[in-house]
Design a protein that fits this description.
The protein has one domain. The longest helix is centred in the C-terminal third of the chain and has 52 residues. With 262 residues, it is mainly alpha-helical. 72% of the residues lie in helices and 0% in strands.
């Protein structure tokens, strides 16, 4: 019985997809593809913003028109529901968060790039920590340390014994520990899982149709290609949704510190 060659065995993609060595031998350990994509995303966003609004026209066209659709979307759907009259003040932060996260996510479906930057946990963690520091700072500044902690632990209408025994410890744990963690992980996990699924269906399709075609295998490969196409459409929707949810939660956290009564 002939030995099975390693090339005859399909190896599905695994978490090794997310391990990137330095770009060249001797390069700093941190200079990897995700870092370059992250910096490129910032540069692209700055260039697009400059091109759209460096010379604004009374009747918007092209990039300015697209930008003027994006701004009211974030303002009306994210900022105003949680920040009210303070929405415009926080729009630079929220709009930048939304657009950069969305662009970094979309890199996952761009041919040649094909990696969502936020599938590396360090990037969402930085965003989440920025929002976390702003939230705590605003809460203490506007309510005082005692007022901020009291508002967290003893909401109006909740019996004090119940608050002391159950609600206060859970709320403190959530606010100071799990809140930034879950804020970051929600974005990271969705981008991680989506990229892995796309890679899996693409690899199966390539293997059974191109690399190792067989009579029973080709239909499986074609089905996998179709699934990869459908999953790409779904992934684009999820990429947009996760950028929206991350920014919405940021607005909610900031609004909760500015307006604790609401």
């Amino acid at each position: 019985m002939p030995a099975i060659l390693a090339s005859d065995v399909f190896t599905p993609p695994d978490v090794g997809l997310f391990d990137f060595p330095p770009l060249w031998s001797g390069a700093p350990y941190w200079l990897t593809k995700p870092v370059v994509l992250g910096l490129a995303g910032v540069a692209v966003l700055c260039v697009l913003a400059w091109a759209a609004f460096a010379r604004p026209a009374l009747v918007p066209r092209g990039l300015q028109n697209a930008g003027e659709y994006g701004y009211p979307f974030v303002r009306d759907q994210v900022a105003r529901p949680f920040l009210g009259a303070d929405a415009d003040r926080w729009m630079p932060l929220l709009l930048s968060l939304f657009l950069l996260i969305l662009l970094w996510n979309l890199f996952g479906v761009v041919p040649g790039l094909q990696f969502p930057v936020n599938a590396r946990i360090s990037f969402p963690v930085v965003f989440a920590l920025i929002v976390y520091v702003i939230k705590i700072y605003l809460g203490v500044r506007h309510q005082g340390l005692k007022g901020y902690l009291t508002g967290l632990m003893f909401p109006p209408g909740l019996p004090k014994p119940l608050a002391i025994a159950l609600f206060a410890p859970l709320e403190l744990l959530y606010t100071f520990v799990t809140s930034p963690f879950t804020h970051a992980v929600r974005l990271f996990a969705n981008m991680f899982a989506g990229h892995l699924l796309l890679a899996f269906f693409s690899a199966v399709g390539f293997w059974f149709v191109v690399e190792h075609p067989t009579l029973p295998g080709v239909p499986v490969g074609i089905l996998s290609v179709v699934m990869a196409v459908l999953m790409t459409g779904l992934e684009i929707f999820i990429q947009f949704l996760q950028a929206f949810l991350f920014t919405m939660l940021a607005a909610m956290f900031i609004g909760g510190s500015l307006h604790p009564d609401h």
